[in-house]
Amino acid sequence: MPDSSKFLHPEAIKRISRLDLRARHIVEGFLSGMHRSPYFGQSVEFRQHREYAAGDDLRHVDWKVWARQDRLYVKQFEEDTNLRCTLLVDVSNSMSYGNRSLNKYEYGCTLAASLAYLVLKQQDAVGCVAFDSKIRAQVPIRSKRNHLHTVTQSLSVNAPEDKTDTYRVLKSVAESYPRRGMMVLVSDLLADYEGTLRGLKLLRKRGHDVLVFHVMDDDELDFEFSGPLRFEGLETLDALNCNPRSLRDGYLEALNTFLEQLRRDCAGNTIDYALIRTSQPLDAALAKYLSNRLGMHHRN
Questions:
Q1: pLDDT, tens digit, 9 for 90 and up, residues 227-256
Q2: What is the pLDDT of residue 213?
Q3: Residue extent(s) of CATH 3.40.50.410 domains in the chain
Q4: How far is CA 66 from the centre of its chain?
Q5: pLDDT digits (tens, 9 = 90+) for 99-130
Q6: Cα dihedral sign for 101, 104, 106, 111?
Q7: I want to staple 151 with a disulfide (CB 3.0 to 4.6 A). Which of 6, 25, 116, 123 is the partner?
Q8: Which of 22-26, 65-69, 204-208 has the lowest mean pLDDT?
């Protein structure tokens, strides 16, 4: 079997222009390598069946599985979903940054589309919200397999164009989605920090499981610039002419302080957090989602 990582690398992904095909390509490649990884074991079992529980309709028992494994499993149908997942995707101007295979917007949308396909493949339900200073597109939560196209279409037509107002959007989402589910935020988090945290805590208070995929470019994390440069704001009119080497130590110190505070606040509020580089294959993000999904499944 070929190395599944080739399906997941940004350079390979870039060559597939349609977002729905890209998502299928990534997820199928990811799943093809899962059984070879000791980290996952048999964790993908729930995608098609769940264990029989007292009161389940015996007509839905998969007797072929019982014959092989001597354990009762129930076939799950589209209406029998046990997860409602909403993808909250930042399409603000700062997401347009990137000098490599995929910029943050392209990477974030690819990640969100891949998660949508994975959720639908699990026979769970997924919806999507694309936002900047306000909600730009909203796709209802559905579990039908052809729903992937609706999700990817909403992401594809929302190119970055405005500032970010995460609190306003998360507050609106918290009010619009009263039923508990999983909220997955995909963003560079370059917005008012206190507002973002307040919004995330509000989602937790309403009973949602919350995952944050913090998407950043290598330039932002490593600051490997040299020579005289002019930095221009993507969401402000500010500009700075400087020698970046003289700023590097101070910048990295401030960045690490921010990231450490973010990790601490997320952990303190039972919010799952993952920092994702746009140069990384997407398997880390998919694995993070799936391990959290399994944790929810076992808690339920």
A1: 777 877 676 767 788 777 888 899 999 999
A2: 97
A3: 4-33+79-299
A4: 35
A5: 888 999 999 999 999 999 999 988 899 999 99
A6: positive
A7: 116
A8: 65-69
pTM of the model: 0.81
Q: Does residue 86 contact residue 182 with C-beta atoms inside 8 Å?
A: yes
Rounded CA-CA distance 6/3 in Å is: 6
Residue 47: which of 143, 124, 116, 105 has the closest Cα? 124
User: Candidates 3.40.50.300, 3.40.50.410, 3.30.1330.10, 3.40.50.12280; correct CATH number of 4-33+79-299?
Assistant: 3.40.50.410
pLDDT at 83 over 90: no
CA 178 – CA 203 distance, rounded (Å): 10
Q: Are 119 and 85 in contact (CB under 8 A)?
A: yes
The partner residues of 90 in beta bridges, in order of sequence, read 131
β-strand pairing of 239-242 with 229-232: antiparallel
26 pLDDT above the threshold of 60: yes
Residue owning tokens 């949602």: 208
How far is residue 182's CA from residue 91's CA, in Å, rounded to a whole number?
Answer: 20
Cβ contacts of 8 within 8 Å, gap of 6 or more: 26, 29, 30, 281, 282, 283
DSSP 220-231: HHH----SSEEE
